[in-house]
Amino acid sequence: MIQQRFIELGEGYGDIYELLELMSTNSNRLYKSYIFSSKKGSAEHLSFAVSFEPAFSDSQFMPIYVCREGIKQSADKPSKRVSLFTEKAESMNSKPVRVEVKHSSEFAEKDLFYQYITGVLRLNHLLPPLR
Hints:
Layout: E1 3-10, H1 15-25, E2 30-40, E3 43-52, E4 61-73, H2 80-91, E5 97-100, H3 110-123
Parallel strand pairs: 1-4, 2-5
Antiparallel strand pairs: 2-3, 3-4
């Protein structure tokens, strides 16, 4: 059975550049790119994530790298990091899928949050089914 697991890089300020580099060096494995949007109070927080195909044909591990909720989105002042991520993904023929999710602070543990996100992605056919 394929194992899909989130690997958190950080909150996205400097970590977004590491995510962009991972996209470049693993371009042949890129499965999908995502922008998760969540609300906390009146603020909208964005997470950037990228899923990759397993490294080897017989491997059962599908990594999903994520920069969690570090970017605050404002209608009057859009973040440069959003455009950097979107441009990089689109240059690799992967239009980021925007998904509205609950904020991670609504979960008792981070693992429960990532289980929830995995479920949302599977239900929307944004991750391959378990084999």
